[in-house]
Amino acid sequence: MSILVCPYCKSPLIDSAERTYVCENKHSFDLAKQGYLNLLPVNQKRSKDPGDNQMMISARREFLELGFYDPLIESIKSLVAAKLSFSSPNIIAFDAGCGEGYYSQKALNELPGLSTKIWGTDISKHAVKNAAGKYKSNFYFVSSIYNLPVADASVDLILSVFSPVMEEEFKRILSTQGYAIVVSPAPNHLREIAELIYENFRPHTTNILEKMSATFQHLHRERTSFKIEMGSAEEVLSLLKMTPYYWSTAQERLENITKKTELSVSCDFNIDIFGQ
Fold first, then answer.
1. What backbone torsions phi and psi does residue 54 show, to the nearest 5 degrees?
2. Taking the CB of residue 248, how many other CB atoms lie within 10 A of it?
3. Which residues of 112-173 form beta strands (DSSP E)?
């Protein structure tokens, strides 16, 4: 069953079995060869090519595939098993700001007692193209998180990892007994990287609780912290490219990091669970 609606008229989008999705008002959207849909209207774009570019996506996939964030994946899986209760074992999971698809694919598949169908969206067509090309059992589409082409109350579980949250849209698409899991940086996330770039380290702050608690019930917060040990300049660079630091810092400051052949870095995450 499709959870998609037309981004123009909000009518259900139906798979015509000809690699085209259509609505009752004859708006149509063709599947790309990788199997994803572009459901981002031109008037919702803030630039010609919004979101992360191909270089950013490739760097993130390279780093994540090394397994450094596996403890975060295990924490999410454990929390789903311990804290969430669904009325049916067959659940619809939605990755909001899915990037290259790694987090939802690794954390929400093969959960004990659950069969998960994963849908994901990102405003970056490069991200969605990569996700759809690698994780073919899931369904991905390009859209804005602020105007989701998703039917009301059609999703059982929302996962948002380091992505913007739009609480009103999350509320609209989530089923009455559904949950939202939001992962955000805790104070010491990548502290050592920041200390090599800036004279004074400023701990991360977040307004996730403030934003989401006005619309949802906050059920649980888990802080997951661990160290990663990188043993080559290539690994250090792959992490750096995955962060905003690489793209916004002067070259001479970046050299404090890129010349290192080993580095121990703190990973620090808040995992918040919200319910209706």
1. -65, -35
2. 8
3. 115-122, 139-142, 155-161
12 strand-pairing partners: 5
Q: Which of 154, 61, 55, 46 is nearest to 99 (CA)?
A: 61
Selection from 31, 27, 32 nearest residue 10 by Cα:
27
List Cβ neighbours of 122 (8 Å cut-off, separation of 6 or more). Answer: 51, 52, 97, 98, 99, 128, 131, 140, 142
CB 138 within 8 A of CB 41: no
Domains of the chain by range and CATH? 14-275 (3.40.50.150)
Q: Divide the 276 residues of the chain into consecutive groups of 10 and give the mean pLDDT of each group.
A: 94 90 96 95 74 84 93 97 95 97 95 95 96 96 96 98 96 97 97 87 90 95 96 88 79 80 95 96
Closest to 104 (Cα-Cα) out of 162, 34, 57? 162
**Quick check: 157 and 133 in contact, CB under 8 A?**
no
Q: Please tell me the pTM assigned to this model.
A: 0.94
